[in-house]
Specification:
Blueprint lengths: L1 E6 L13 E6 L7 E2 L4 E5 L7 E6 L2 E3 L3 E5 L6 E9 L13 E10 L10 E7 L2 E16 L2 E7 L7 E8 L3 E6 L7 E7 L6 E8 L9 E7 L1
Parallel strand pairs: 3-9
Antiparallel strand pairs: 1-2, 4-7, 5-6, 5-8, 8-9, 10-11, 10-17, 11-12, 12-13, 13-14, 14-15, 15-16, 16-17
């Protein structure tokens, strides 16, 4: 996890227990951007006291915190809208109307088309823009009838790792199963503007670079 600590002047009037320190922990896991063919989506709103939840999924409008739906048309992009309404805090936030709206777009994967994150990409790390190398994200038959997601050259040249992945339409979250190659973890995301551009954010669980984050930007070869 990445921990961010922010210090500010405490707001004792609105928040009696406020010590002026906010701590935010962000985990590596990236929410998926897709639904598999013939699969289903489970959508959950964050638990809030005295809140009213409204989901707009396609032509449906539902009023519950958790929704499960299936039967989405393959190959299409579906907007998922969540509206949360609660009593506004007018004393502390005069412009608060008590309504929060979040919209995400989920792509329903078609049959037999690999995710855009698979491929061979040549690029550089942000911290070393002159050192060009190639990273590959591929599926490989490791034994008859058994396939694994593989990542090559990530962090160490010539390194081949089996990865435990969460596959999406444009993004892949990965965590290497074994300690070899210092066990890289992170996510790869293909650009929404150009399907040939990829950004890979990753760190290591072991080795001299343990805990340090790297950013690789590459072009499909």
């Amino acid at each position: 996890p990445i921990t961010l600590i922010v210090k500010k002047a405490p707001n004792a009037m609105c928040f009696p227990n406020d010590d002026g320190i906010d701590t935010l922990v962000r985990y590596m896991y990236v929410l998926p951007d897709s639904i598999p063919p013939r699969g289903y989506g489970i959508f959950k709103g964050a638990l809030e006291e005295d809140a009213e939840y409204t989901w707009i999924i396609g032509a449906e409008t539902l009023h519950t915190r958790v929704v499960q739906r299936s039967g989405f048309p393959k190959g299409e992009t579906i907007p998922i809208t969540l509206i949360v309404k609660k009593t506004p805090n007018a004393m502390c936030f005069p412009n608060d109307d008590g309504i929060d709206t979040l919209v995400r777009y989920m792509h329903v994967l078609p049959d037999s088309i690999p995710p855009r994150g698979y491929g061979v990409f040549r690029g550089t790390l942000d911290e070393a823009p002159l050192d060009t190398f190639t990273v590959s994200i591929l599926r490989k038959e490791t034994s008859p009838g058994l396939f694994d997601d593989m990542i090559y050259n990530l962090g160490m040249k010539g390194c081949e790792v089996y990865s435990s992945t969460v596959i999406g339409f444009r993004q892949i979250a990965f965590h290497v199963k074994h300690i070899n190659c210092d066990r890289p973890q992170g996510w790869a995301r293909v650009s929404a503007d150009d399907p040939n551009e990829i950004t890979i954010n990753y760190s290591f669980d072991y080795g001299e670079h343990k805990g340090k984050w790297f950013v690789f930007k590459g072009i499909r070869q």
